[in-house]
Amino acid sequence: MLDIVVTDKAGNIVPGLAAKDFTIYEDKTPQTIRSFEGPQQHVLLPGVSIDSTADLAKAPNTPVTVLVLDELNTRYTDMSFARQALEKYLKAQPAVLTQPTTLLVVNNTKFEVLHDYTLDRQALLTVLDKHFPEYPWRLMNSGKGGPGAAERLAMSLGSLEQVAEATSGHPGRKNLVWVGPGFPAINTNESTNKEAAVIQQAIKHVTDVMRDSRITLSTIDPTIASSGTVLIETPDDLDAAENENGSDPFAGDVNFQLLAPATGGRVYASRNDVDAEIGQSIRDGGNYYTISYSPTNHNDAAQPYRRISVKMNVPGLTATTRNGYYVDTSTPPPTTAADVKQAVNKIAFDLGSAANSTMAYTGLLVSARRLPGTPSTFGINVDAHALSFAQKADGSSQAEVTVMVASFNRNNKMIAHQIQEMTARQRPDTDPSPTADFHIQAAIPGGTTRMRVIVRDAVTGKMGTADLAPSAFNEK
Fold first, then answer.
1. How far apart are CA 1 and CA 322, in angstroms?
2. Cα dist. 277→66, 105, 177, 199, 266 in Å?
């Protein structure tokens, strides 16, 4: 499925096109279009109010905007400029925004939500005004190299993965606008083969999860004018570079900016009007055609990276979308002790990230409550339609999940957690239940001010979260 932005020679959005105006190529082979949606089918309907992640269910086809302030990789003086630009952009918008928008920040120690999805422009301005950025000590201590730079790379990629996993339950397009430089460029030729392979695999994985969650990334670097010219700004630039070296986008040097064109977004560089760049990326994120096709090449082993191009059959028009994808990147079942350890570590990382995040994860629809009359037993309900049920020999079916219950104190520090693998079963002689129900025991230590329940599907890795306020877990 491709989300395609079409512009004319002046850069204006072009509405009113039909499927016949597009030709899709995969590895230079024309593809048959199976479905087509115009921009008018993605508009938020009048009267729909959005004040939280849960409210996105009211508008499943509506694109959303995810604004990220990068305070991990941005110098303190440039943070101020970026913040002023975001404020200037918001003040130029109507009181009721046209797209649900959330504001996030990544810094030295955490990735947090400053404001959940909303259409209220003033609410975003208020929280932006109250936010005080941290001094970027990781950047100042590491610069462009050394262990600190690798640490910032991992934290930046982890932030992108969190957004992808948290938003996977919303089927609409996500326009992720990253305001900041991102992680430092890495020359893999200066790394060992093992280090280079790990870095490239991490980049590919994050690109995959963003694609699966329907995320288009745009990067806006407020410092780029003084740090050189970016040669690859759009998917077309990336496509041209791949034609020259005959490889996939991450076969050589790795830098943050490559992620944007690889997802169908663009790099905004060498300009001082950051507010206009934010506006253009959000405009493009809300005006797109959606086209789906079934690839004609089913031999995954022959070509692990597939190249995509879109030809406009109307002269003078340009189509912007992601320029390819990786195939069959699923992890095989673990067969050795090392494989098992790596799989366990991945599950622990996913659960820990979701637990410590302040984003609501929507890959699974989860609700939770403390059962009345019990000191530490919680009932958890999961929408069964999103779970991976497998048929058993006796005709029944079952899905396996990992459940985590985490407790936090007033400083938002995790002070206790319980993890348990569980199985949901459906009998063949009864109608399938709309929910999978689980019970888990988890102690509630003194000083607990917030609890979060995380459920992870064992097959897909999709996660859902439910947050419990004190009134929910302290009830008699």
1. 10
2. 15, 18, 10, 29, 10
Helix axes 274-286, 76-91, angle to 10 degrees: 50
Beta carbons within 8 Å of 215's beta carbon, 6+ residues apart: 66, 163, 164, 167, 173, 174, 176, 263
Q: Residues with Cβ < 8 Å from 34, sequence gap 6 or more? A: 292, 293, 294
Phi, psi of 13, deg, nearest 5: -65, 140
Residue found under tokens 């009211």: 58
**Which residues make beta-bridge pairs with 293?**
33
| Range scoring the smallest mean pLDDT among 140-154, 286-300, 371-385 | 140-154
The alpha-carbon radius of gyration of the chain (Å, integer) is 23
What is the structure's pLDDT at 355?
94
Alpha helix positions (H), 235-319: 235-245, 259-262, 274-286
CA 238 to chain centre: 21
pLDDT computed for residue 76 by the predictor: 87
Interatomic CA distance for residues 193 and 134, integer angstroms: 35
Please choose, from the candidates 448, 446, 358, 359, the residue with its C-alpha nearest in 3D space to the C-alpha of residue 410. Answer: 448
**CA-based nearest residue to 456, from 380, 392, 395:** 380
**Could you tell me the pTM of the whole model?**
0.89
With the C-alpha atoms ordered 405, 407, 412, 415, is the resulting torsion angle positive or negative? negative
Give 67's strand partners: 103, 177
Tokens 């409210």 map to which residue?
A: 55
Q: Rounded to whole angstroms, how far apart are CA atoms 126 and 107?
A: 20
Q: Which of 225, 228, 237, 232 is nearest to 270 (CA)?
A: 225
Question: What whole-number distance in Å separates Cα of residue 410 and Cα of residue 403?
Answer: 23
Residue 293 has pLDDT above 90, yes or no: yes
The structure tokens listed for 165 are 């996993």
Indicate the residue type of 134: E
What amino acid occupies position 83? R
Structure tokens at 37: 């949606």
Closest by alpha carbon to 342, among 473, 236, 201, 446? 201
CA–CA gap between residue 53 and residue 363 (Å, rounded) = 12
Strand 450-457 versus strand 397-408 pairing type? antiparallel
